[in-house]
Design brief:
The protein is an alpha+beta fold. It has two domains: about 260 residues, Phosphatase 2c, domain 1 (4-Layer Sandwich); about 45 residues. It is built from nine helices and twelve strands. Strands 1, 3, 4, 5, 6, 7 and 10 form a seven-stranded antiparallel sheet that branches. It has a five-stranded antiparallel sheet with strand order 2-12-11-8-9. Helix 1 runs antiparallel to helix 2.
Length: about 325
């Protein structure tokens, strides 16, 4: 893929260390591309990562995560996005583990990752850990990802309730992360309905995005303090800038105990014929004048030729 400086999709992304003076171990990257394999489709890659390990280890791991995955995808083509995302994440996990085990590494460091790859208007996702991916559509919020955490597994098995999970001592214990001794299983379920099967969630990959949709990626510093119901009200704001600012401000007002990171992407509305004409009418008028001049010159040449033939031929 070829990197481009501008993207068709409006994007606002921000990271804040929180209110407790904690070192910011979150990282994110947003990159726009074009590809000859899909010449008319803009491409956007958004990646968010939350480092674990402390003592700069988490910061190093999350930095490696977003940089290495971005580089891997940039060197690929968007022909097999799910396979490419899986390879990128597992390859990066191995490199994070090797760095952690090296002489200059920080043993035990790791990171989460949530990645959204938009090709044209098709969405592909992958995630490991408890950073989340959301879709806001028609004033409804869908959590597309599933947390890989102890409390999520306990809720799935009916051991604890959602209310109990928020206060549980294992609330921040994650079950998958990049940098583990063995590459983590990359979750490529794209969940649109809470009761659908894993197979159905996998079939949702390549989701056709609609004008006005918003794709949002967050780290757990935000979702630990703001419920999905509350997040809906924040993400459904009039502008992406306001969405991002109010979300981070709300988390900080509630203590900001962890780092706070969010990426918000909007699918632009299709341009109407009138809007297109209003924007391009000078070019249209100029083109019509050129065409008329060409036709006029052609007609004059043709008439002069006919006149010449009538004068000299019997």
């Amino acid at each position: 893929m070829k990197r481009t400086q501008e993207t068709t999709y409006p994007v606002v992304a921000r990271s804040h260390p929180g209110s407790t003076g904690k070192n910011n171990e979150d990282r994110f990257a947003v990159s726009a591309y074009r590809s000859d394999t899909v010449p008319h489709a803009p491409i956007l890659v958004a990646i968010i990562s939350d480092g674990i390990g402390g003592h700069r280890g988490g910061e190093i791991a999350s930095e490696m995560t977003v940089n290495l995955i971005t580089q891997y995808l940039a060197n690929s083509e968007p022909t097999t996005p799910l396979k490419t995302l899986q390879e990128a994440i597992q390859s990066t996990s191995n490199l994070v583990f090797e760095q952690a085990e090296s002489e200059n590494g920080t043993r035990g460091m790791g990171s989460t990752v949530a990645a959204a790859w938009i090709i044209g208007k098709q969405l592909y996702t992958s995630h490991v850990g408890d950073s989340r991916i959301f879709l806001l559509r028609n004033h409804q919020l869908h959590q597309l990802s599933v947390d890989h955490s102890w409390v999520q597994e306990a809720m799935d098995m009916g051991i604890i309730t959602e209310a109990e999970a928020k206060k549980h001592p294992n609330a921040h214990v994650i079950r998958r992360y990049l940098g583990s001794p063995n590459p983590p299983a990359v979750d490529q379920r794209l969940v649109l309905h809470s009761m659908e099967s894993d197979e159905s969630a996998m079939e949702n990959q390549g989701l056709e995005l609609k004008s006005g949709d918003r794709i949002v990626l967050t780290t757990d510093g935000i979702t630990d303090l703001i419920s999905n119901e509350e997040l809906l009200g924040l993400l459904d704001g009039p502008s992406l800038e306001q969405v991002v600012t109010q979300t981070i401000d709300t988390a900080n007002e509630r203590g900001g105990f962890d780092n706070l990171s969010i990426i918000a992407i909007e699918i632009p509305h299709s341009q109407s014929l009138k809007e297109w004409f209003d924007q391009n009418w000078p070019k249209i008028v100029l083109g019509m004048i050129i065409i008329l001049l060409v036709l006029l010159v052609g007609s004059l040449v043709w008439l002069s030729r006919i006149s010449f033939l009538d004068k000299f031929l019997p």
